[in-house]
Amino acid sequence: MSKTIRLTAAQAMVRYIAAQQNSDGERFIEGCWAIFGHGNVAGIGEALHAMKGDFPTWRGHNEQTMAHAAIAYAKQSGRRKAMAVTSSIGPGAANMVTAAALAHVNRLPVLLIPGDVFADRGPDPVLQQVEDWTDGTVTVNDAFKPVTRYFDRITRPEQLLTALPRAFRVMTDPAECGPVCLAFCQDVQAEAYDYPESFFEPKVWRQRRIRPDEAELSEVAEMIRAAKHPVIVAGGGVHYAGATEALKTFVEAHNIPVTETQAGKSALPWDHALNLGPIGVTGGAAANTVCAEADLVIGVGTRFQDFTTGSWGLFANPERKLVSLNVAAYDAMKHGAAPLMSDALIGLKELGAALGDHSAPGKTEGLKADWFGKVDPLTDAPEDSNQLPTDMQVIGAVQRQATAETVVMCAAGTMPGELHKLWKAGKPGSYHMEYGFSCMGYEIAGAMGIKMSQPERDVICFTGDGTYMMANSEMATAAMMGIPFTVVITDNRGYGCINRLQMGCGGAEFNNLLDHSIGGENSNIDFAKHAEAMGATSVKVGSIAELEEALAKRFEAKGPYVVVIDTDPYPSTEHGGTWWDVGVPEVSERDEVNTARANYEAKKKMQRVD
Q1: Could you give the number of structural domains in the chain?
Q2: Res 546: pLDDT
Q3: Are 40 and 113 in contact (CB under 8 A)?
């Protein structure tokens, strides 16, 4: 008879989580973010306290942004490590739903443990309980179901014996990887059970490498041999598979140019001869020119988001065929692609072997030089220091102060598009962009998560004033924990990116820039003082030259370091890019909208849905 140990369900959960390892022999769940309230303070809180000497607990200031930090940690770790996040019931749990969606879209592991109602329903309804009048089993945590890869509600202590292994299987499976939600009834957390001691023995979860099917491999190899103008679209899967060197070897051996999605950027160094740079709506002319002419598009670890494909209007060659090398069958089969379902590292190696000495005939000379010749001047410091700088000039200043260990990160607004086009990423992992969900408020918490994942890196976060106002509370957490990273706040007094989109669709400037809002007094928020009040070292600068001087001092700060600069909300990089499908009104009193609608209809005809 196996030995048992009597523990509460919460104690058992924490002990099990702390014993799970990745294939490097490191703990897979590094620790737990927690905001306690009723629903998790008595059960989970006591269990985490008992393990605090071995399993860390961190206190954040918002459930959503705690989860953002955990997600960024997992992303920067290449999905080899993750974090848990626990909340109370009701609004605390609901706050995490947005973060769950972000992790789901980006295929990133995070273990979410919201408190839930009483399983025995004795005090029903409890404080903050959402009551469904037609289904007594529904709680607010059911909102996690469509935005998690695995959901379970723990209503008995012994259910952990099956629920926890299932949760870790999902988080460590390259094909199914994503967020897990274990909604934990608060009375059950405190109930005891005799668990087998063997349940808590260390276990290694290996991220399996799926090998390609021989028939799929042969078909794709023949398609590449037959192609006159093939191109590779490198996505985030290249990074998660540790396949950056394999990609470099493959393209050099077979002379196939590479384009990079937001998630794939830095898969190859920016100056590699075959790296044509960013693709799609926020892409460059070099990559998009080759993609428009390509007769074979080879996706590697990409889910072909609309920003990548120009809403499926970019790949214009009528003879174009599509290949998708992807570990997930769902992505490998998209849009009629010839699938090569495989881990990116193994798939590229075996595809390279199948191709032998084949070299693609395509030529791309001059495209990169022409592209950089157009955009490099945009990042130069302005000659007139009295003019408001552009976002492109801010990027140039940061680029000039960056080191080989710099990780630049962002998520929403103007900067993702400008960084995708203009940032010159060096080694893999030096560019961290959350652009699957493009969630405002990810930036500051995400920067903290990146630094926790790789303390040796120089983390620089770009954020606008709008997204800073949406979620800045983890600045105080980083200051409290002494986690150093740099935040560059570009203050254009509103939502400049969406204002430009509004104008591009023929709309009048309305409700985006604060200067144009109803009752619109000019924005006069002192972001430097605000960040300082939360414990950051901060400075407001008045020019690009002052920005560079301030950035040079960032390593002197003990915690977060914030530099604020006012910018012009209107200019953006006009070069490169391609169409994006945004519905323009069919009927309007504005001539500008009618003109935009006519242009929209013309572009819509180029869209391919096959």
Answers
A1: 4
A2: 97
A3: yes
C-alpha distances in angstroms, 405 versus 79, 203, 250, 409, 457? 20, 33, 26, 13, 5
Does 157 sit behind a cis peptide bond, omega within 30 degrees of 0 on the bond before it?
Answer: no
Instruction: Tell me if 172 is assigned to some domain.
Output: yes
Q: Which of 255, 210, 217, 209 has its CA nearest to residue 350? A: 217
Query: For residues 31 and 531, what is the distance between their CA atoms, to the nearest angstrom?
Result: 27
The residue among 179, 205, 231 that closes a domain is 205
* 456 & 535 share domain: yes
Q: Tell me whether residue 573 is in a domain.
A: no
- The pLDDT, as a whole number, for residue 263 is 98
413 & 345 share domain: no
Q: Would you give the end-to-end CA distance of the chain in angstroms?
A: 60
Per DSSP, what are the bridge partners of residue 195?
A: 5
- The residue type of 278 is P
Residues 326 and 296 in one domain: yes
Give ∠ CA 366-372-376 in degrees, rounded to 5: 160
| pLDDT on residue 365 | 86
Q: Tell me, yes or no, whether 385 and 503 share the same domain.
A: yes
State phi, psi for 57 to the nearest 5 degrees. -120, 135
pLDDT digits 0-9 by tens, 500-556: 999 999 999 999 998 755 555 566 899 999 999 999 999 999 999 999 999 999 999
pLDDT for residue 1: 67
Domain that holds residue 26: 4-205
Examine the pLDDT at 69 and tell me if it is beyond 80.
Answer: yes
* CATH number of the domain enclosing 231: 3.40.50.1220
Write down the pLDDT at residue 517.
55
Q: Which residues of 290-326 are buried (b: 16+ CB within 10 A; e: fewer)?
A: bbbebbbbbbbbbbbbebbbbbbbbbeeeebbbbbbb
Same domain, 344 and 427: no
Same domain as 539, residue 408: yes
Domain presence at residue 120? yes
- Tell whether 371 is covered by a domain: no
Residues 350 and 460 in one domain: no
pLDDT score at 519: 53
Indicate which CATH number applies to the domain containing 562.
3.40.50.970
363 has a pLDDT exceeding 60:
yes
Helix (H), strand (E), coil (C) string for 426-467: CCCCCEEECCCCCCCCCHHHHHHHHHHHCCCCEEEEEEEHHH
CA angle in degrees (0–180, nearest 5) for 269-271-272: 70
Dihedral-angle region of residue 576 (phi above 0 means left; psi in -120 to 50 means alpha; beta otherwise): left
Are residue 359 and residue 384 in the same domain, yes or no?
A: no
Q: What is the pTM of this model?
A: 0.97
Distance of CA 451 to the CA centre of its chain: 15
d(CA 281, CA 68): 25
Please classify residue 334 by burial: count the beta carbons closer than 10 Å to its beta carbon, then call 0-12 exposed, 13-18 middle and 19+ buried.
middle
